[in-house]
Specification:
The protein has 5 helices and 11 strands; from the N terminus they run E-E-H-H-H-E-E-E-E-E-H-H-E-E-E-E. The chain is α+β, with helices and mostly antiparallel strands and 226 residues long. It has a single domain, classed as Ribosomal Protein L22, Chain A (Alpha-Beta Complex).
Length: 226
């Protein structure tokens, strides 16, 4: 995969587009209201059910990035947030030849989409945790790589985001045991489908990976203010 930073509207040659945003301040009540009005009622309520303001901001930002993504892919005239549906594993989708995925952690939100195959995205803010609590989530091979990393935390989040991105591309998320997939290679096969993984450099202090069923694709990164 090749990753390109984008600054204009010439995206049609790209197979995957990723829009991202970093929340750098607490929204005022007016800012929150102004952004909520852009969402359909069901998604408004989903965001408002979040207890913390940051959680509300992350939820809303993810949906607004999806709006920008559809526009940049030339699909905004065909699809809207009102068309969103959810599979049995609560993964959102459209009844159309487009796949997308949203992830957020810390203050960062990213939304990726493609009209070629399936995609999954995961971003994690690197923080200290008790790694012993996650022993059962990784294969022996993955733990060997993690323990040999310059920083075990860096290695942990590297493989964690790869694993989550793949499972989100598959469409099952945590409903599939994390230890059932080994992401130590550049790709893996699950149910006879090959998933390719790529690191995305989103921001300092974060690990981010994208997984896709299409190999050797061009990925466009676009920072959006919502």
């Amino acid at each position: 995969m090749k990753v390109h930073s984008l600054s204009d509207n010439t995206y049609y040659w790209l197979m995957i587009i990723c829009c991202y945003n970093e929340i750098n301040h607490n929204w005022s009540a007016q800012e929150l209201a102004d952004k909520l009005v852009l969402l359909p009622e069901k998604l408004k309520q989903q965001a408002l059910h979040k207890r913390q303001l940051l959680d509300k901001q992350l939820s809303i930002t993810g949906k607004l990035l999806l709006v920008h993504l559809l526009k940049n892919m030339g699909l905004d005239k065909e699809l809207s947030l009102e068309n969103l549906k959810y599979n049995a594993f609560h993964r959102p989708y459209f009844d159309a030849n487009v796949d997308f995925n949203i992830s957020h952690s810390g203050n960062m939100v990213i939304c990726c989409g493609t009209i070629s195959g399936k995609t999954g995205i995961d971003i994690e803010y690197i923080k200290e945790i008790d790694l012993d609590d996650y022993t059962d989530y990784f294969t022996e091979n993955e733990w060997n790589h993690i323990n040999q990393s310059h920083s075990r935390y860096d290695g942990f989040y590297y493989y964690w985001t790869r694993k989550e991105a793949v499972l989100k591309a598959i469409g099952t998320g945590f409903h599939t045991p994390l230890s059932s997939v080994d992401v130590s290679g550049e790709s893996l096969i699950y149910d006879d489908i090959t998933y390719h993984m790529q690191t995305l450099d989103i921001g300092e202090g974060y690990k981010c990976h994208i997984a896709t069923t299409v190999n050797a694709v061009n990925v466009g990164l676009l920072r959006i203010n919502v």
